[in-house]
Predict the structure.
Amino acid sequence: MTSILEKIRNIPIAVPSLGDEEWQAMREPLLSGWLTQGPKVLQFEEEFAKLHDVKHALAVTSCTTGLHLALKALGVGPGDEVIIPAFTWVATANVVLYCGATPIFCDVDEETFNIKVSDIPSKITERTKVIIPVHLFGLCADIHAIRSIVPSHIKILEDAACAAGASYKGLSAGSLGDMAVFSFHPRKSITTGEGGMVTTQDKELNRLSEIMRNHGAEVPEEVRHSSAKPYLLPDFKMLGYNYRMTDLQAAVGLVQLQKLHSFIRERQTWAEYYTEKLQGIRWLKPQATPDYATQHAWQAYVCYVDPDLAPMPRNDIMDILQKKGIATRPGTHAVHMLSFYKDKYRIKMDDFPGAKACDHNTMAIPLHNKMTQEDFDYVIEALKAI
């Protein structure tokens, strides 16, 4: 009997699911000549807001610029502190420094990989302005538990980079905190190349964000150009940035948004398949999914390689899989262990043991909407063979 492993396959960690519909969608802005922020961006914002049960959505150039914009709208500045999980992509910490504020690291849970709620109270001071729970890999953080222990004057900014389409206790990611920001990077479930979306229920926070997104202009470009006097330049009453999404990206985003739920359903099916077929591997533990996560968005399928049970270190396992044509990645990194942050704040590796363990032992295996049954079976058999 021929083994499925005899013929090496090439299975990337992630591949964006794009096709002719996205290609055709760009024709309209290309032919109209309206390539920068315009009517497609507005339509994308409206449909994204509707899908995520929020009043306002604002398209930006990336999740990183969106987080920066949101922190500025929330009034974060020099002297303020922002609590973030120690196990997250570095951008979550960088945006705090962009505002002149200080990131305060919090440990994470080794089963969900999300912020450890019990560790939050010890991080709160009179300088705490915002907390940024990350919905890591598409699993919502326990927002209600966080809100119950965080004073009401401290704002909650959801880092929902991985969580488009996710839900928590029946509520959409992006509607859970004071503000939220999503990513449309190609490794996410839906993509616009680069790009992000800021959401909020608060009219004033949205107004401030919209002004700062466009250099600080009181009147958006598309409004000015369609007015009776487009030659009159707007006033600028605050410092702003150029964080505007293009209509080309938004045209692609509109098509992708229509596919979001079907993409997630498919990922859910295959995530369950992985979990079922891999359960015999004692050293490989999938990300825990608590009952409050009514919809995991499955941006990635991330496991914990138990160092006490695994036959070899995680990196050696990743190397074996790489040689078999299976791409893997660490879940993400522990920011407090990155040289810049470690040196700047004199943090010790063991200060956040949960984040350290996740940094050393998490492993993402391929999960995307272009994989076939044979691809999934190949990954499963390769893991079983270790």
Observations:
- The chain has a mean pLDDT of 95.
- The longest helix spans residues 247-278.
- Residues 161 and 354 are 21 Å apart (CA to CA).
